[in-house]
Amino acid sequence: MTDRTGQCLCGAVSFKAVDMSDTFSACYCDSCQRWAGGPYMGASVKTENLEVDGSENIGIIKTTSFAERAFCKKCGSGIWWRLTFGQYVGSTSIPIGLLDDRSGLTLSDEMYSDYKDHTNERPENVGQMTSTEAEAVVATFTEGEPE
Ligand SMILES: [Zn+2]
Ligand SMILES: [Zn+2]
Fold it and tell me: What is the architecture of the domain spanning 2-115?
């Protein structure tokens, strides 16, 4: 268990998760993939241990009869997936991409693993672009005046 902090893309929502799990799950179900834009990867924290700043910027949609998903109303980042019915109520899953620091987090299980397909494979020799290389390309987008 580790205390972790994180925020959405725009920063309107930030949080502290006390005693967050040191493992995360990946889910390949249709619901998670449509929400996350790909496999959903989340780490759990007890809902009572989640301190949210900017909760007025959070929208919540009930996506199934037993769960809800929260998002930032300003930037669209997914904030949590939370069961609202059943034995695991009281736990909240946070997308690990929101975390400021993912050190020590390891993948524990994959849900809907039969939904994995060829797009989830990472072949060797796939093109690699480092952050430095990507930022050099982005810099060319902002040089000069727009036409
Ligand atoms: Zn935001
Ligand atoms: Zn799922």
Answer: Beta Complex (2.170)
